[in-house]
Amino acid sequence: MSERVLEDGPRGAKPTKRLSRKNIILYGILLLVAIYYLLPLYVMIVTSLKGMPEIRLGNVFSPPVEITFQPWVKAWAEACTGINCDGLSRGFWNSVRILIPSLVLSISIASVNGYALANWRFKGSEVFFNILIIGAFIPYQVMLYPIVILLREIGLYGSLWGLVLVHTIFGMPILTLLFRNYFASIPDELFKAARVDGAGFWGIFLRIMLPMSLPIFVVAIILQVTGIWNDFLFGVVYTKPDVYPMTVQLNNIVNSVQGVKEYNVNMAATLLTGLVPLIIYFASGKLFVRGIAAGAVKG
To answer: Are 169 and 269 members of one domain?
Structure first.
């Protein structure tokens, strides 16, 4: 038997070369794409660490000769964002006060909606689900003025809680779709076994579904944090200057027509504004991919 194996030669897949022509082309393309996307970030970082005299020399890609963090300090605490000159600090805390309740409310409600639509069939559930799907694709601009009227009538126009309500409502359709598809991908045997054991709606949701749903919750958190934190349109329409979110204040700094354009301060302010979603994404990127693969896009 052993002699026959020796005569036939080793079996199995032939090992591939690490530096084959195909791999060189593939990694070369990936490297070019990475450079293309990282180059603007590099320019922003090095510019934010330079003084204005060095920036005026025009060496955009050169690293700073003398590193200074004064642009970052000014962007955070001293830059003028309209009539106020307290930098982005006020807008940062406004964004935090908008983000946290919007995140908790939208994800909590959407997770229960998705669970009910996936596991508890009720009269009109398909109609309700179709309405949510339609709502996910309605352009925001169509609803701007009607929501202004609604918020004015209930006394929330120009307040942080009015903007929280808007983000919660507009985040509901897509989040409900994500949770519904994820819960539908969980084996029915678990749900039926819990029902046989006497568990009810909330018992199954809290004891079985939630412990298994960390990946999809991470997906929902990343989507909501990115959408709410980076929002400009709702912030400028539904709030007033005292409670403007960080993105609106960033726009006021960058597009200011008074004084000399301080490109280092503008770059530092832009990096500060985008820091929160970047940290959230890099801290939970693996779970985000896992959640998408585990059922976030399944029908």
So the answer is: yes
Domain holding 8, by residue range, is: 2-71
Number of separate domains in the chain: 2
Determine phi and psi for 120, rounding to 5 degrees.
-125, 95
Residues 103 and 237 in one domain: yes
User: Cβ neighbours of residue 164 under 8 Å, at least 6 residues apart?
Assistant: 98, 101, 102, 105
242 and 111 part of one domain: yes
Q: What is the CA radius of gyration of the chain?
A: 26
**171-197: pLDDT as tens digits:** 888 898 889 888 888 888 888 888 888
Q: How many CB atoms lie within 10 A of CB 20?
A: 10
CA–CA distances in Å: residue 227 to residues 140, 222, 275: 13, 8, 14
Do residues 127 and 180 both lie within one domain? yes
pTM attached to this predicted model: 0.81
Is the pLDDT assigned to residue 103 strictly greater than 90? yes
Residue 265 pLDDT > 70: yes
Closest CA to 45 of 77, 8, 71: 71
268 and 153 inside one domain: yes
What does the alpha-carbon distance between residue 249 and residue 13 come to, in Å, rounded to a whole number? 59
3-state secondary structure of 262: coil
Among 226, 218, 239, which residue's Cα sits nearest to residue 275? 226
Calpha distance 3→66 (Å, rounded): 73
Q: Which residues pair with 158 in a beta bridge?
A: 239
Asked if residue 246 and residue 185 are part of one domain, the reply reads yes
